[in-house]
Automatic annotation (TrEMBL):
Keywords: ATP-binding, Membrane, Nucleotide-binding, Transmembrane, Transmembrane helix. The keyword Cell cycle does not apply. It is a multi-pass membrane protein. SMART domains: AAA. The lineage of its organism: Bacteria, Bacillati, Bacillota, Clostridia, Eubacteriales. This is ABC transporter ATP-binding protein/permease. It comes from Ruminococcus turbiniformis. SUPFAM superfamilies: ABC transporter transmembrane region, P-loop containing nucleoside triphosphate hydrolases. The chain crosses the membrane at residues 23-44, 56-74, 135-156, 162-179, 250-271. GO terms for molecular function: ATP binding.
């Protein structure tokens, strides 16, 4: 239990000061609580001594008022401190996770699903946010307050003190056994919650497919299974905890009765005054209240601890960018030096050895699955090569910091992702300090100014998550405007013509030509015109460079490119 408390305290980071304050004020809360006990004692003394004056009643009333007001004020401050600590310690962790995810290989997103990461950032951290500081403060101040109360009881009567101590020790023993047992079931609950988030996310993302295949009602099998697993793991926790909770309750009730009985017996035997015996009855009701609230917090502590472990798993993923330098090369030629690359253990690119000279355009073509997208992704270090090296301006890309590497590159892919934000902010994504005029200029060059201006809120129009409220062609042109504004010297381009109507295709083409001027371009080409105009054509086949040259050099040479030209429109699996 102590190790989990330490872990939680360390997790709080900068918020430790608020937690410390909360515990400090928690001590005074207990002192004000003792005023209430004092008030009762005053009344009992007055009633049993026969000295029935208003003085005792007023004193008791004053003590009660001070006790209630003091606790109310302290409660208000500690609640604020705890909410602040909970919110900020988790907000900091969420920002840390976001930063971390930018620095890890994309392969992680294959192995760990989106749902797992979403689950950690939402439900898992929510548990820490809403319970972490409360649990920590309740346990620590609960212990301090119990000790203070016990010392007072010992001061009052050592025999009653011993009974109260025995009850407390028994209660803590049962609590600690329960806490250890819970270690075996709480991680399973975390896992089931992450699975549930994963299943729900997948269902929402695939909703259009579910609807189009009329699978409503059947498509939620994974969600149902995840719900069932979640229900079962929650019930397992309850089943495991219930007997211990009953034992906790019984032990405290037993010792309350023993304390009460002892007071009465001592009084009857003449070993205790009537007023002290009455006070003992009062003590029997109050003495365990603090330790009881500590006990309930302990059962939550394990859940919070295992949530922290779950969230900390993300820290253990090795980062890609630990040794990079900030480099801004003068030239932006890209060279692939005998590179091999596999996804897990499946070889995809084999001995690729080619250079893309500075400020030239290289078109990559090849059958679906030949490795075109993979080759492009390696330049931005979405993954690292297995062997060989990729250099930009003569320097291995692994020597760049991720920031300085990404400053050299703009990527425009077919699947454009736009954030649920204004169009202006989406265009400014690669250059957040750009002015409105610069945004408009980029949008004009990318042929999207007209359709943006026609929207009711123009550049301030908020687009749906992923660009849901725009057409495919509009999204692509916005992503080109984004790349134009960033003005990186290297453009990696998936020439997108699929699902774009002829009018949009012309506009897209114009936008692309504008973007490509004076840049080093690596383009997955789909249009014959683009391929013919390229300074260099790479033909990828089965992860190898099968042919390399200009259109003029390759068009009459026997080989894949010539076959491709001849049958380009009919050939299955080729994209044009
Ligand atoms: N993230 C990934 N994890 C594992 N395998 C992958 C991943 N991405 C692609 N692959 C596999 O690697 C191979 C090459 O894929 P890649 O997308 O690079 O081909 P491509 O030539 O761009 O195809 P297309 O023209 O259809 O877009 C394919 O067999 C694909 O299944």
């Amino acid at each position: 239990m102590i190790s989990v408390l330490k872990k939680l305290y360390q997790f709080a980071g900068e918020e430790q000061k608020n937690i410390k304050k909360s515990i400090f004020w928690g001590f005074f809360y207990a002192v004000f609580h003792m005023f209430q006990v004092g008030a009762i004692y005053f009344v009992i003394l007055a009633l049993t001594s026969g000295n029935k004056t208003y003085h005792a009643a007023w004193t008791a009333l004053l003590l009660l008022v001070v006790s209630i007001a003091g606790r109310a004020i302290i409660n208000r401050f500690t609640q604020l401190q705890q909410t602040h600590a909970g919110y900020f310690m988790v907000a900091n962790k969420r920002i840390e996770i976001g930063d971390k995810l930018k620095r890890i290989p994309m392969g992680y997103f294959n192995a760990k699903s989106l749902g797992e990461i979403t689950g950690i950032s939402t439900t898992v951290l929510d548990v820490v946010e809403s319970n972490g500081p409360v649990v920590l403060v309740n346990i620590l101040s609960g212990f301090i307050n119990s000790i203070v109360f016990l010392l007072c009881v010992f001061g009052f009567d050592w025999r009653i003190g011993l009974l109260a101590l025995a009850g407390t020790v028994l209660y803590l023993f049962i609590t600690s056994v329960m806490e250890k047992k819970s270690a075996s079931v709480t991680p399973r609950r975390q896992e089931s919650e992450a699975q549930l988030v994963d299943a729900v996310l997948e269902q929402i993302q695939g909703m259009s497919v579910i609807k189009s295949f009329n699978l409503t009602g059947k498509g939620d099998r994974r969600v149902r299974e995840a719900l069932e697993y979640n229900r079962k793991s929650n019930l397992d926790i309850e089943r495991l905890f219930t007997p211990y909770m009953v034992a906790q309750e019984l032990s405290l009730h037993l010792f309350s009765v023993l304390i009460m009985g002892a007071g009465i017996i001592f009084c009857l035997n003449g070993n205790m005054t009537l007023s002290d015996a009455l006070m003992t009855v009062v003590i029997s009701f109050l003495v365990f209240s603090q330790i009881q609230s500590t006990g309930s917090a302990v059962s939550l502590l394990r859940v919070v601890g295992s949530s922290i472990d779950h969230a900390d798993q993300i820290d253990e993923i090795p980062e890609m960018d630990s040794t990079g330098r900030t480099i801004y090369p003068k030239k932006h030629d890209i060279s692939f030096d005998h590179i091999d690359f596999s996804y897990d253990r499946r070889p995809i690119l084999k001995n690729v050895n080619v250079t893309i000279p500075d400020r030239t355009t290289t078109a990559i073509i090849g059958p679906s699955g030949s490795g075109k997208t993979t080759l492009c992704s390696l330049i931005a270090r979405f993954w690292d090569v297995d062997s060989g090296s990729i250099r930009i301006g003569g320097t291995d890309i692994r020597e760049y910091t991720l920031e300085s590497l990404m400053d050299q590159i703009s990527m425009v892919f077919q699947n454009v992702y736009l954030f649920a934000d204004t169009i202006e902010n989406n265009i400014k994504f690669g250059k957040p300090d750009a002015t409105h005029e610069q945004v408009v200029a980029a949008a004009k060059k990318a042929c999207c100014h007209d359709f943006i201006s026609a929207l009711p809120d123009g550049y301030d129009t908020v687009i749906g998550e992923g660009g849901a409220t725009l057409s495919g062609g509009e999204k692509q042109r916005i992503s080109i405007a984004r790349a134009m504004l960033k003005n990186a010297p290297i453009i990696i381009f998936d020439e997108a013509t699929a699902n774009v109507d002829p009018e949009n295709e012309d506009k897209l083409q114009k936008a692309m030509e504008e973007l490509m001027r004076d840049k080093t371009i690596l383009m997955i080409a789909h249009r014959l015109k683009t391929v013919q105009k390229a300074d260099q054509i790479l033909v990828l086949d089965g992860g190898r460079i099968a042919q390399k040259g200009t259109h003029e050099e390759l068009k009459d040479m026997p080989g894949i490119y010539r076959d491709f030209l001849e049958v380009r429109k009919e050939a299955a699996g080729w994209k044009l």
